[in-house]
Amino acid sequence: MSTTQAFEPPRVGLTHHIKTSADVKSGVMEDTRSIMAHFGVLVDPRIDHTKEHKLIDIVVIALCAVICGAEYFTEMETFGNAKVEWWKTFLELPNGIPSHDTFGRVLSLLDPGQFQACFLNWVREIAKLKLGEVIAVDGKSLNGSADRLGEGVPPRRSVRGPAVTGHTV
Fold this sequence. Notes:
- The chain folds into two domains: 21-126, no CATH class; 130-169, no CATH class.
- It has seven helices and two strands, in the order H-H-H-H-H-H-H-E-E.
- The protein has helices at residues 21-24, 30-39, 55-67, 73-82, 84-87, 100-109, 112-126, and strands at residues 138-141, 157-160.
- Helix content is 39%, strand content 5%.
- The model is unreliable at 1-32 (pLDDT under 50).
- By secondary structure, the protein is mainly α.
- It has a two-stranded antiparallel sheet.
């Protein structure tokens, strides 16, 4: 009988020893290395001979696309293709930008708990407040979402909390 251990994500601050191709290429941003370090530990569930794209390439493009507003796999592919020359400055992309089918298939195979742990550790690291740093909170009611039929449904609201000095939203 085999016992399976729960996935233990890397602790914040202990992942920066991981060397990636981004470490040797010029023009790499610190946040990109942080994404690669945190998500580089994801277990790739694909069979070796079916891998046309590196898992970290898929994850980095998908994360950036979603942060920039992509909601569908087709939008991830479009986003990737729009910035392909920039991606090549720090991602390997051995077969170019993955297709929307590849994004959908690979992301659906990932262990959600493992992905969540990597994501939370990454966000915790980039969202650390420094002494004296301010978070400005801004809230708005979305236009046209008020209860016009008198059913007591409150309007939809949007809240942002950017760190003023870090430009984080």
